[in-house]
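Action item from last meeting closed. Structure (173 res):
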């Protein structure tokens, strides 16, 4: 399995063992969490190799948030990246304790954040991935403080299987 980490994270795949552990040995599964879901989609879309399953864990879906939202987020990040990431980790971990996620913190750039906030989830890309025979699975927590999980679930349920867990947050706990 190929795994792509979330924004400002590294090594957090073990948090999702309940979902992805059965696929760890498969070279035909690609998984991404949050910002990593963007990277996973781009990897699969650009790949000519076999991919049986694309697993997207809380994909970063900010469609409809507007330029002011993006500009404000970028401003706060550039002003104090450490404080921004600390608050981001706290919100991503909710309703779990932030210590669960903070041990996986890694460097993040403003370029990463901008891509995360402005990525244009395109129906055409996801349809092409499906057309190639790849099963797309998405997972969301309804208590997510990072993305609008309901809106994201409504979008992704048009592509493969999409699951929305009522009492879970962004890290699906």
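Sequence:
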């Amino acid at each position: 399995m190929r795994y792509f980490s979330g924004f400002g994270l590294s090594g957090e795949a073990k948090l999702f063992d309940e979902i992805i552990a059965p696929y760890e040995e498969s070279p035909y599964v690609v998984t991404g969490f949050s910002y990593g879901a963007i990277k996973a989609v781009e990897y699969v879309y650009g790949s000519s190799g076999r991919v049986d399953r694309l697993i997207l864990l809380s994909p970063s879906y900010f469609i409809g948030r507007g330029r002011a939202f993006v500009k404000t987020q970028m401003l706060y990040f550039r002003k104090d990246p450490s404080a921004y990431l600390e608050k981001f980790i706290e919100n991503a971990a909710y309703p779990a304790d932030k210590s669960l996620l903070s041990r996986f913190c890694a460097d993040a750039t403003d370029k990463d954040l901008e891509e995360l906030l402005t990525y244009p989830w395109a129906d055409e890309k996801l349809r092409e991935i499906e057309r190639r025979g790849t099963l797309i699975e998405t997972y969301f927590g309804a208590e997510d403080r990072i993305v609008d999980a309901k809106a994201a679930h409504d979008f992704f349920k048009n592509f493969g299987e999409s699951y929305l867990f009522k009492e879970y947050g962004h890290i699906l706990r």
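Note appended to the action item: DSSP finds eight helices and five strands in the chain.
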